[in-house]
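Good day; I would like, with your permission, to put a structural problem before you. What I wish to show you is a protein chain and, alongside it, a tokenised description of its three-dimensional fold. I would ask you to consider whether the tokens describe a fold that such a sequence might reasonably adopt. You will find the record immediately after this paragraph:
***
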Amino acid sequence: MAADEKAQANGEQAKGKVKKVVGGAAGNESLKGKGHAEESKGDLRAAKEKAKDAIKRK
């Protein structure tokens, strides 16, 4: 996994988790939803990079 892509994925996941927690605590469903979406985006980016690494190994 490229280091910059991995860092970006981890950053998106962390930001998403924070937004979900803050949105849930504040009762802000919009922020909570945006956090969930951002966390999912980070998860997908990480999965994409892992798949690319697996293909390169073969």
User: Anything to note?
Assistant: The radius of gyration is 14 Å. Helices lie at 3-26, 29-57. The chain has two helices and no strands.
